[in-house]
TrEMBL record, chain A:
<dbReference type="InterPro" id="IPR004595">
    <property type="entry name" value="TFIIH_C1-like_dom"/>
</dbReference>
<keyword id="KW-0863">Zinc-finger</keyword>
<keyword id="KW-0539">Nucleus</keyword>
<keyword id="KW-0227">DNA damage</keyword>
<dbReference type="InterPro" id="IPR002035">
    <property type="entry name" value="VWF_A"/>
</dbReference>
<dbReference type="GO" id="GO:0006351">
    <property type="term" value="P:DNA-templated transcription"/>
</dbReference>
<keyword id="KW-0479">Metal-binding</keyword>
<dbReference type="Pfam" id="PF07975">
    <property type="entry name" value="C1_4"/>
</dbReference>
<protein>
    <recommendedName>
        <fullName>General transcription factor IIH subunit 2</fullName>
    </recommendedName>
</protein>
From TrEMBL, chain B:
<dbReference type="GO" id="GO:0008270">
    <property type="term" value="F:zinc ion binding"/>
</dbReference>
<dbReference type="GO" id="GO:0005675">
    <property type="term" value="C:transcription factor TFIIH holo complex"/>
</dbReference>
<dbReference type="GO" id="GO:0006355">
    <property type="term" value="P:regulation of DNA-templated transcription"/>
</dbReference>
<dbReference type="GO" id="GO:0000439">
    <property type="term" value="C:transcription factor TFIIH core complex"/>
</dbReference>
<comment type="function">
    <text>Component of the general transcription and DNA repair factor IIH (TFIIH) core complex, which is involved in general and transcription-coupled nucleotide excision repair (NER) of damaged DNA and, when complexed to CAK, in RNA transcription by RNA polymerase II. In NER, TFIIH acts by opening DNA around the lesion to allow the excision of the damaged oligonucleotide and its replacement by a new DNA fragment. In transcription, TFIIH has an essential role in transcription initiation.</text>
</comment>
<keyword id="KW-0804">Transcription</keyword>
<keyword id="KW-0862">Zinc</keyword>
<protein>
    <recommendedName>
        <fullName>General transcription and DNA repair factor IIH subunit TFB4</fullName>
    </recommendedName>
</protein>
<comment type="similarity">
    <text>Belongs to the TFB4 family.</text>
</comment>
């Protein structure tokens, strides 16, 4: 009986019960164990991702609703400790990453419980509000209804300005949906209002989810374990390719507030408390706000600072992928022995040339790890920046 | 990924990556000569290495047309014996000075090849920042046991506005890695890039008034390791001006208009975005159909 087994196992052992690390071992020709070379696998995965993201226009101002299915299927324990706990943890990480990469966008949370969709938080730009609300309501009950969630989200997003990209990300655990009407009509309605729906399934692939994503131009994926779920979620953090007809380009009026003078006293408009010193003043109505980016509560002007805009500039000026250099090519002989970025030796085991990459523009050589770091986080080629 | 488990190393071990400005256009205008400046810097580096046996120092030279690694204290070739060589220079920094001299000569040649360009005589800050971050990322990859890295920019050249996007990218990457960027500005005007860098990443920014006492400023402000900064009073960040400048006139604005497609900033209302060419108030479908209408009309006439 499973319970009896679990009593004898310590907490640390439970983490390894399902771990099948022996499946990752490889043998070489003579039957000896080969050390697992993760870096080459990781780099190959990264190259595949890079090929997908070429220079397309991206939707930078996003209004995203995250719909989480809190039906009874979410209480399943195939994801440890339970699907709800794993979903909550990863959604929190996703929200932080989302605001980091899209500082001008807004997020809202919707939950499905007992067949009814509830709005947990309205569209807003502060990660803390969303995370607090999410963590307070973690329980699974009743059926799941995809149609009710879509109707609710559609209604909320119809009030959003036309230059924003409307998106929904649904985390679906159930294997069915109990709807009051015809969900196909709802899907057509979403398609007409240019709402891009993506679904991440936690149990199995469902036709209705696949159909929804295909119709609206979103992404459908099913997670096989916790780590995979996290990766799939974080795939939605960078801006998706903009389907150009979806958002009307417009000039948005924004304010760049200056810091309030040291020692000045004012009642801040977000907390309704007296605050001294640090804070910002809206340039239009002179109300005081505590943090940026935000919308002025008094006059509604979007307030940002220049670094918030600069965070998105790397999407507009992406760097070209580096070219792989085969280990046995002739050009390797004249090349310098170390990576231009981190000075690590480019030779592999036994002083033979190992795999490396090169930038087309500046012709410098980089190691595989620098390649990943440069393209995923830094967005600058050190070689190109070091020449005129 | 930043490693919280660097606690397994003693708390106050640091890796200091020094970005040294060698821009000849700047050094020709200062009161202090480059060699006097270098003597302050070398004494400071010695002090940092003396604070803890495990401390590491890496020096990257930021030139006018190129950037290069000059010195890495962890390389065994730099651990010379303590006998002075024939010129009387302690071997610890003989290689640094040799490499620096080679770099400056090469940089000068490269700048001459470029010819006279009409641009602000700035140094390539974005290049050396990117290299420093790649090096720090390598240190993080090496496992749990590593010193706490930080970057110190020692610069006098003015900001080059063409480097804005690259410098901001480096700043955000440093922020994510939790690597503070300290800056010591010895030039005449203020450097907005360095102020923003230190503010966003949680580093210290300071503009020393008396360059004769540079060593004192460096050791009292910039030599403190990250853990000890909690117990020491360092210059506080003054309010940094984060207002943006408009793309059309380059003047700082309080309120402006942002293109929703490319995030360009304008100070007044336009019909069309000059950066990405989107027509405002019109969806792309209408735009393409109006273009094809124009073509039909043109072919008919």
């Amino acid at each position: 009986d499973e319970d009896d087994e679990d009593e004898g196992i310590g907490e640390w052992e439970r983490a390894y019960v399902d771990d099948r690390s022996w499946e990752e071992l490889q043998e070489d020709e003579s039957g000896l164990l080969r050390p697992i070379d993760n870096s080459a696998i990781y780099h190959a995965q990264y190259r595949r991702r890079l090929r997908a993201g070429t220079r397309i226009q991206k939707g930078l101002i996003r209004y995203l609703y995250i719909v989480i299915d809190f039906s009874r299927a979410a209480a399943e324990t195939d994801f440890r400790p339970s699907r709800i706990a794993v979903m909550a943890k990863h959604v929190e990480a996703f929200i932080r990453e989302f605001f980091d990469q899209n500082p001008l966008s807004q997020v809202g949370l919707v939950s499905i419980k007992n067949g009814v969709a509830h709005t947990l938080t309205d569209l807003g730009g502060s990660p803390e509000t969303h995370i607090k609300e999410l963590m307070g309501k973690l329980e699974a009950l009743g059926d799941s209804s995809l149609q009710n969630a879509l109707e609710l989200v559609n209604e909320h997003l119809s009030q959003v300005p036309s230059y924003g990209h409307r998106e929904v990300l649904i985390l679906y655990s159930a294997l069915c949906t109990c709807d009051p009407g015809d969900i196909m009509d709802t899907i057509q309605k979403c398609k007409k209002s240019k709402l891009r729906c993506s679904v991440i399934g936690l149990s199995a692939e469902m036709f209705i989810c696949k159909h929804l994503c295909q119709e609206t131009g979103g992404l459908y994926s099913v997670a096989v374990d916790e780590v995979h779920l996290k990766d799939l979620l974080l795939e939605h953090a960078p801006p998706p390719p903009a389907i150009a007809e979806f958002a009307i380009s417009n000039l948005i009026k924004m304010g760049f507030p200056q810091r309030a003078a040291e020692g000045s006293m004012a009642i801040c408009s977000c907390h309704k408390e007296v605050k001294i010193g640090a804070g910002y003043m809206c340039p239009r109505c002179k109300a005081r706000v505590c943090d940026l980016p935000t919308e002025c509560t008094i006059c509604g002007l979007t307030l940002v600072s220049s670094p918030h805009l600069a965070r998105s500039y790397h999407h507009l000026f992406p760097i070209a992928p580096f070219d792989e250099v085969p280990a046995l090519s002739d050009s390797r002989k004249d090349l310098g022995k170390s990576c231009f970025g981190c000075q690590q030796s480019l030779n592999g085991a036994g002083n033979k040339p190992g795999p490396c990459v090169t930038c087309r523009k500046c012709k410098h050589y980089f190691c595989l790890d620098c390649d990943i770091y440069i393209h995923e986080s830094l967005h600058n080629c050190p070689g190109c920046e070091s020449i005129h | 990924m930043p490693s919280v488990a660097s606690k397994q190393y003693p708390d106050d071990v640091s890796l200091l990556v020094l970005l040294l400005d060698t821009n000849p256009f700047f050094w020709s205008t200062t009161s202090i000569t480059f060699s006097q400046f270098l003597s302050h810097v070398l004494a400071f580096l010695n002090a940092v290495l003396g604070l803890n046996q495990l401390n590491q120092v890496v020096v990257i030279a930021t030139g006018y047309s190129s950037c290069e690694y000059i010195y890495d204290s962890s390389l065994t070739s730099n651990h010379g014996s303590f006998e002075r060589d024939r010129t009387g220079m302690p071997p610890l920094f003989a290689s640094l000075l040799n490499k620096l001299e080679d770099f400056v000569t090469k940089d000068e040649e490269l700048s001459r090849e470029e010819g006279n360009e009409d641009r602000t005589p700035s140094c390539l800050l974005s290049g050396s920042l990117s290299m420093a971050l790649c090096y720090i990322q390598r240190v993080f990859r090496s496992g749990h046991l590593h010193p706490q890295p930080r970057i110190l920019c020692l610069q006098g050249s003015p900001d080059g506005p063409e480097q804005y996007v690259a410098v901001m990218n480096s700043i955000f990457s440093a922020q994510r890695l939790m690597v503070p960027i300290d800056s010591c500005y010895i030039g005449v005007q203020n450097s907005a890039f360095l102020q923003q860098a230190s503010y966003i990443t949680g580093g210290v920014h300071h503009t020393p008034k008396q360059l004769d006492g540079l060593f004192q400023y460096l050791t009292t402000i910039f030599a403190t390791d990250l853990h000890s900064r909690g117990f020491v009073q360092l210059p506080k960040p003054i309010g940094v001006d984060f207002r943006a400048s408009c793309f059309c006139h380059k003047k700082t604005i309080d309120m402006g208009y942002i293109c929703s497609v490319c995030l360009s900033i304008f100070c007044e209302h336009h019909k069309k975005c000059s950066t990405c060419g989107s027509v405002f108030g019109q969806s792309k479908l209408d735009e393409s159909s109006s273009v094809s209408d124009k073509k039909k009309k043109a072919s008919q006439t």
